[in-house]
Amino acid sequence: MNNIIKVLLTGGTGMVGRNIISARKDKKLLLLAPARLEMDLASRDSVLQYLNKHKPDVIIHAAGFVGGIQANITEPVNFLVNNIVIGQNILLCARELGIKRLINLSSSCVYPKDAESPLHEDLILNGRLEPTNEGYALAKIATSKLCEYINREDRSFQYKTIIPCNLYGPYDDFDLGRSHLLPSIIVKIHNAMLLGLDSVEIWGDGLARREFMYVADAADLILKSIDNFDDLPDVMNCGLGFDYSVNDYYKSVSSVLGWGGKFTHDLAKPVGMKRKMVDTSRQQSFGWKPKIKLEDGIKETYKFYLKTIR
Fold first, then answer.
1. Which one of 6, 109, 187, 294 is least enclosed by Cβ atoms within 10 Å?
2. Is 136 designated active site?
3. Which CATH superfamily is domain 5-172+213-239+278-291 in?
4. Is the Cα torsion angle 10, 13, 17, 23 positive or negative in sign?
5. pLDDT digit string (tens) for 40-74?
6. How far is CA 277 from CA 35, 55, 118, 127, 221, in A?
């Protein structure tokens, strides 16, 4: 009897996808991670053809058009349209071909702007979204709701959504025009060290709080979810269950990199939600928790960054 589980991973060249590939150890897991030339998620015909040819047992939808606060502000059309299209194509083609199991990766930006942390899964669509990443959030909500509707129309389908908190780590985007908070801090402080600067600017007052989890932990949860698919809730947060202020992250990166300068604050710059920390009660019931401490994660991320700039 063939016990091999064939898993299709979208977004295999992204941060989460690459870490899933690196973390895979189960030889019974056959992981397919097609490049765009093999399967173009923006093309329904390309997706349908690839899925029909390979017939995966499970799909992990980790692909996305992503970026930090600056990119989200300047490119809302791309963030909305691109993410809706790729989510729609992979889900509807999978349904058409009778692929019953799918794990959709969402984002904690789907939660309302003014919701109290910790953010429970039931809060989605219960308030206004944060304007700075509204396009991306709407696309992610649409994809997760499409999972829900497919399940509702035919109970034999199990399309489930994992909502990670902010992630960072190897294969992150270190472009200051597009990067998220932690990689941008690493680049800014690294550059300050190279240039001999004694200060680094922080957007806002630095009091906004964020939850950042090392991406290898998220990859570990996703692989556990494949092995324990029936126990995975239909919608589940993935996070630490605690957070730090933006100022704390700057201090932690400074300590790890060994930079002793000071920080200034530009109060005119946008900062996004005041606090964004997910509720991890469903994750705890699922029997999983993250392992990597912040300082250790920053060290590994900085090592990776140094390799990319040589």
1. 6
2. yes
3. NAD(P)-binding Rossmann-like Domain (3.40.50.720)
4. positive
5. 999 999 999 999 999 999 999 999 987 777 777 88
6. 33, 37, 5, 16, 18
